[in-house]
Design brief:
Layout: H1 10-29, E1 37-41, E2 47-50, H2 53-63, E3 69-73
Antiparallel strand pairs: 1-2, 1-3
């Protein structure tokens, strides 16, 4: 297994990812992909969409082996949720 090195701080990674998503990617993916994951290479702007974080990441890394990847869930602010999210009465 190859260990990849991060080239950006967490803050810069998030900032670049959010900017790319809002300016270039959102309008391409949002229509029929609610709650899916977008994996974005913050250096090239390449991205992949999937139901699963790992699948989106694997496809992106197959195209861009040195990708600096940032993730976002379409239509949500966060990729993962913590705590109870059951049905409401």
């Amino acid at each position: 297994m190859t260990v990849r090195q991060r080239r950006y701080s967490k803050e810069e990674l998030a900032q670049r990812g959010k900017e790319l998503y809002e300016s270039q990617i959102r309008q391409q993916v949002e229509a029929n992909n609610a709650d899916k994951i977008v994996a974005i290479d913050i250096e090239t702007g390449a991205f992949e969409v999937d139901e699963d974080t790992l699948a989106a990441s694997d496809r992106l890394l197959a195209r861009c082996p040195d990708a600096q990847t940032w993730f976002i869930r379409i239509g949500q602010g966060a990729v993962h949720r913590f705590g109870w999210h059951g049905l409401t009465e």
